[in-house]
Amino acid sequence: MTSDEISGSTQGYAFTIARYEHPDAPEPLLQDTFRYAEALQGFGRSSDSISVYTELLGRDLLHLLDRARCIALYSRGTSYSHLGRKQEALKDFNEACVVEVSPVPLLRLADAITGFEDYEKALEVLGDALNCEEATQDKRLYIRILVAMARNHAAQGKLLKARNVLKDALVLAPKRRSLKARLEDIRAAIKCRKEKVASTDAPSDLGPFETIERFELLYLGKPAPDSEVYHYVEALLDADRYTAALEVSEGWQDAIARSRMPGNLHHAQELHGRILMELGRLPEAEIFMRQAWETHKSEPTVTCLAQCLIAQERFAEAEVVLRHALAMPEIDPPRIMMRLALVLRADRRLAEAESILGKLVTIAPDNEEATQYLEDIRSAIKITGKG
Predict the structure, then answer these.
(1) How far is 151 from 148, CA to CA, in rounded Å?
(2) For 289-321, how does the pLDDT look when each residue is reduced to its tens digit (9 = 90+)?
(3) How far is Cα 280 from Cα 274, in angstroms, rounded to an integer?
(4) Which of 13, 83, 84, 270 would give a disulfide with 280, using CB separation of 3.0 to 4.6 Å?
């Protein structure tokens, strides 16, 4: 392996890590260390990325470079968030915004604040982001801020304000389907609230805010079918209303446990675990996800449990669960194979990850994502000379 090959640039996380850690690599520049930390984060090794960002923040040079210090802080905050360490993430996002007032750290701060359901405070931060010159010069960034503002308005039930903000966003990007879908959901929710008429469509075909309005019109204070409760709780989760989602989910599980037909208990357990994950309560989430997996072994339950274990960086345990699922005839192999390959990659077992991805690309040749991961891992193996 030549020094030119070692120092080449690429976007692949595996290649970036292999190049940086190679014993013959040149002394890394500041940007090389930032890319390395980003790659560790993307790999699923958030704890390692936190260590690198912390080392960067301890360098005298970063106290002279506001932009670099700001990036290190909000990037470390993102890694804390991945690990469920929400308070530490919030602290880093706040400090990043003190170092440099710019849209990206402000967006991440607002998102963290929304996670604590302080929607008005999040809107204040988003207002600051919207007034940044950088945001006014970047249409995509400006739209991201508007969408975040609309979500925080809607989470408070202020649907008219959410509608108006989304209309402003759609003026800037009239062909963007995701914006149209958001606006249609809010308009449908407003109509349901105003006219007291619920859609006859299945909840699975509705947006989160229309789903919430529809359920509360039809079933609030009344018994509801399990499928309706499931979609209602899921909609509350999508709408960033975590406390309400948790409360309804707990009541639903109790109702199922008392019934003589607990067939949907795994749905309630899996959904409850997802809410706890969003709140950063990973050990608690794992309990419910394990219960769901043990109650009903399916692709959704194994996916949720594996995600929870991966978030805790317990890759070996995630591997066991995924390999178990892969042996089950009712499980769709490609999606589980992809997750298993990424777990092996995160565990630095590149040869095994390469083997899984090679098989996946063979059975699903149109899977561009798997092909990209495979190429990246092969590039990394070429540098290290081993898997």
Answers:
(1) 5
(2) 999 999 888 888 999 999 999 999 999 999 999
(3) 10
(4) 84
